[in-house]
Every structure is written in C-alpha cells, then in structure tokens.
Please model this.
Amino acid sequence: MNPLIFREYDIRGIIDIDLDEETAVLIGKAYGTFAKRRGAKKVALGRDGRLSGPRLEPAVSDGICSTGVSVVRLGMVPTPVLYYVATTGGVDGGLQITGSHNPPNYNGFKGMVGEDTLHGPHIQELLRIIQENDFEIGTGEVEYLEPIPRYLEDLGGRLNAKKKIRVVLDAGNGVGGMTAVPLLKHLGCEVIELFTDVDGNFPHHDADPTVPKNMIDLQKAVLANHADCGIGLDGDGDRIGVVDEKGEMIYGDRLLILFARQVLAENPGAPILGEVKCSHLLYKDIELHGGKAIMWKTGHSLIKAKMKEAHVKLAGEMSGHMFFADRYYGFDDATYASGRFIEIVTSATKPVSELLSDVPHTFSTPEIRIDCADEIKFDIIIKAQTAFKKEYNVIDIDGARVVFSDGWGLVRASNTQPVLVMRFEAETEQRLAEIRNLIEQPILRWIKEANA
Model:
C-alpha cells in the first residue's frame, strides 16, 4: 500500500494503482476500528459519481462491518449529504468515497467520527492500524437509507428567496446537481441546467469551479440566457464557484466577503475565518463590518476543527469550500451555500456585478499550481520559509505567505495533489509581476535542484 495516499485531510489515490477493492477493505477495517475505539456503533457510508465508486463501496462496507461496526449505506450522494447524515441521522460517524475534483482515475475517502472530521494524526492512525494489522473484530450489520428527501426538506426550511431569478447551474457531471437543482427550484429560481447528469468520465470539463477554463461553459450560458448569475459545483458537491450576470468569476475570497457581510449583519462581532490564500481585502472587510477576522490553514477538515475551537460562524476557502455554522451545521456544503447566495442576490437592489463595488480593486492571480513530487514538496516549503524570513515578513501557518506593504505572495504544498500552490496579489499590475517573480523564481530553482 502506498502510504502517501494518507494525506493531511483525506485519503486519495489513483484507482488500480493506489486503490482497489483489497485496499478499500483494509481502509474500511481501519476506519471501523478507529471509530469503534471512540465509541461508534453505526456509521454512514456514501459515494460520489466516480466510475470506481460502485466497486469500492461494498468492499469498504465489508471492511467496516468486520470490525463489529454497523453501516448505513446511502449509495450515490453528494459529500455534504453524507456529512448531513453523520451529523443528524442517528449515526456515530460517516465515510464518503470521493475523489473530489481530481481527474476521473482518482478516488479516495473523507471521514467523520462523532462531530470530528478526520485529518492529520487521525488519518495517520488509520495507516498505522493497517500497517500493524491492529484491527477490531466483530460482525456489523448493513442497512440502506435514501437521505436526500429529508436533507432537501431541512435546507428548504432554512432558506428564503425574496424574488424569482434566473440561474444557470453547472454541476460538471458530478453529484452536486442531485441536490442543488431541486433546492434552487424550491427557492423559486428558474434553473438552466448544464451537465447535471452524473457521469464519472467528466466528459465536458473537470468538475473544479476554481479553474477558469472549467467555468467557460457556465459563463457563456449566463450571457446567452440573460441569467442573473451562474453557479458551478465540484465533483462531490462540497465546493461552489460563482459568476455574475456579466459572466465574470467571483473568486472564493470575494464570495466569502458577500457571505460574511450577511452573517455579520445578523451576528454582530462574530468570528469569520478565511484561509491563507485569501485576499488581505477579505480580512479588512470582515473587520470593517465589525467581525473578528481569523486567517487559518487550507483544508476542509482543518478549518472545521478550527471553527469549533474558535466558535466561528462562517469560514471559506479560495477553492469554494464554504462552511456555515450560522443557521446551519458547520460543514462545507455547496448546495446550502448556493441557497445562501440566492438569498443575497434576491435581497439586493443591484445586480451581482455591483454587490462588491465598494471593495478596492487589486490585481491578483488565481491559484497557480506547479508540479512538485509528494516526496519533495514539503522540503521545498521549509526551504522557502527559511529563505524568505531572512528578508521579509512571513506568515507560516500553512506554507509561506510573504507580506509586503503593497501586496503579498503565497506558496504552500497541496495536501491532495503532487503540486505546490501559489497565489499573488498587489495594488498594481507591475507590482504583481515583481512579487510573483521574487517568489516563483527561487521556488522553480529549488524544485529543479531537488529533481537533479
């Protein structure tokens, strides 16, 4: 077994190279063992729409049951529905089989035990249990549940749109359309559907709404249909991307500004959390509107843990994970986030493109991903932190965020792919290029030296 599939906040690898039915049984046994030792007796199990999911699901279920923990099988559901059942469904945890936004030949696992999302040392404990053959033994039972109707009824009762608008929804052939389409229609939206049929081949584009090329179809459809906005979802339905009525992308940190203003209007002084790739303008805007701004590490499970620790009402990432503990359960759910976005749009007196007109304009890059082998990527980050600290102000909670008076640059190691992730922002286009060059060039040189 490749130990590198056990990552910081989930398990993820390539089908039939890193993951197969035999591996899935072992992961099920490890998860069941881990859960049982924390008092779990019954857990939920779901899967996204990947072609390998139907192979892995019964194998994982068998593994969990062999430890004496019973399984509630949900079948194909968005990851937030698994979280919903794990949070409200009378079970003691849950495991979702998902490759999220990775290419079609990937799959993996996201898990919860009790209210805690597995990450870091928990995931390494699963690996240890497998390596040491340290499994619990028992006989769990299997039952089946169709959770989506109850989930949609719950969300429908929590959300309210002020008027009817036209929305284009691009589900990227992932599972998010299973819940987002009916919820938006319940809210009175006219929904124009793009790629809402589930297809694990992802034939039209990757189901990752943070990458501009994946949003082109959505942008064109918004303009062609004179829609009020467009919403894009990732492969397992826990991340949201948005475009305005002009077809312009609203990146995750700017979307979080909109959500934060809404939350702070109802919860004065509330803590709001963003991750290290977010614009400095987000943190300024939170403070300007009376909130307490918190910068934290990237990663859905790391953020959920910090939210509980700091009693955070709202958190978000550049990647489109939006976590509402305000009027909701605190986990990342693109369908629920879509509903909150519709609330904002339908309550506004101006179009989406003007909702952030008071936020200063800066020049920034999207996420830049540079190939870097898993074996060396964290060493490169340590080198970057050490080198940049000699000359600059560096925030090192997750990678190296180098802060200047007129901008900033970030490099961090992805916990889901063999890449380094960079992002840059500055007050002028020229300064943006300077900051990017200052950070990017040594990083590329260090990668080349490490590969020599």
User: Anything to note?
Assistant: The longest strand covers residues 106-113. The radius of gyration is 21 Å.
